[in-house]
Structures are given as structure tokens and as C-alpha cells.
Amino acid sequence: MAEHEHGSMDINAQEKTFDGFMSFVTRSVVVILAILVLLALFAG
Questions:
Q1: Which stretches make up the Cytochrome c oxidase subunit IV bacterial aa3 type domain (predicted)?
Q2: So what's the pLDDT on residue 2?
Q3: What is the pLDDT of residues 1-44, one digit of tens each?
Q4: So what's the pLDDT on residue 42?
Q5: Which helix (H) or strand (E) holds 35?
Q6: Rounded CA gap, 32 and 2, in Å?
Q7: Which helix H or strand E contains 28, and what residues bound it?
């Protein structure tokens, strides 16, 4: 079995993907909350 040294893996791609995912989730939540507020104001 190959030897693996803890902490030696290059994780730049994973970090970039995670940052993009968190950005997408944050923007989505903001848009959804804005839609809910507008619905509460104008549909109620």
C-alpha cells in the first residue's frame, strides 16, 4: 500500500469548489429571503 503523509495533499481545487459553493448558497438564500419579503408585503 502507498505511504501517505498527513497534510501533504494539494487541496486548492477542493477549496476553490467549496468557496464557489458557499458563494452560490449565500446568494441563493439572499434572493429567496428577498422574494419571501416581497410576497409578504404585496400578496398579504
A1: 4-42
A2: 72
A3: 678 888 888 899 999 999 999 999 999 999 999 999 999 999 86
A4: 94
A5: helix 12-42
A6: 47
A7: helix 12-42
